[in-house]
Fold:
Amino acid sequence: MPSPPLLSLIVPTYNERENLPIVAERIHKALKNYDYEVIIVDDNSPDGTTQLAESLAGIYPIKVICRKNERGLASAVLAGFDHAKGEVLGVIDADLQHPPERIPELLREIQAGADVAIASRYIPGGGVEDWSLTRRMISKGATALGRLILPSIRRVKDPLSGFFLLKREVIQDVELKPIGYKILLEVLAKGKVSKVKEVPYTFKERLWGESNLDLREEVNYLEHVFTLATREKEIRRFLKFCLVGLGGVGVNMGIFWLLTRVAGLSGSYNLVAVIPGIVVSIQSNFILNDIWTFRDRRYGSMRARAPKFNLVSAVPAAIQLSMFGGLTQIVEMHDLWALLLAIVVATLWNFALNFLWTWRKGETEQAPVSPQ
Ligand code: GDD
Ligand code: MN
Structure:
């Protein structure tokens, strides 16, 4: 029989005195045939969890880390990872909402080749026990938002699970800096993960005590997701595109201002004065997008791309005008909201079409032009 990998299981605790003996016993029962260590990371809980953990360390293969100057679930898990000796690292809550009996199954998935094995509430066979509709909705909504914004976690149904195992290599030389407490999100977004497996489980009610997490964590979660999003290439590209577009608005309005306020075009010439700004800003947008936003997608000649960009830009101008007209006249929307909505639609159109057509990938044999 091949010898099983050494597992280091991190158990973060804050005021878990009542739960700890039970979870320790259940972990031991579940893993008695495996070579494992448990690392309890306690943040100097006022209820004496640290002392209790130390007494358990005489019975089970447990190490205790007591942090005196730090608080927080995610950083506690990272401290545990730092001390872990195992080839496989794992995380489980101390309050028995995560059934330790599932660990061997997770371990088997890792042994069968998964880089990360996640205990999942959101695959068939999994679920949550006695959650209010509101809590279910918040959890589902947060999960859906994360999966929408972060392509790297899309393949996972429960990326916010706090119960998972991973191969040590996944986070080797990776700088993990989670904001809030969703450590798995950080691992999936930054780690070297090619194969992920999910195993169903039911998230139980807390055995003793109360959850330590509050509304602030919802805000932390949003910040975390958006911070991770800026690492994703295509999202960065879109942000660049929006920035260039914003610059274009400046160019457009600047030229209009010069023509009407300095050169003295006014009255019925106003309409004429609008056109040069539009034309010039489309060209400046094109150049900036070509040398910055889409630098890595410049196939073929710039002269072929310029007319495409102009054509793509002409359509949303028409869309914008008609949307603006329709929204203000027919639906009687406030004009600024209507303008904003029209700009959003035009930006999405512009980005999509330019991505798919003007800077279309690799349709010619020419390699991308190297950045200037
Ligand atoms: N060391 C340390 N420091 N541990 C903490 C801290 C802290 O500041 N805050 C919480 N913990 C420990 C708790 O003692 C518990 O073992 C575990 O982290 C989870 O905390 P709970 O307060 O029970 O969180 P929850 O039940 O609301 O959320 C859990 O479920 C989510 C859904 O699966 C967590 O496991 C989340 O990670 C998980 O996403
Ligand atoms: Mn809990």
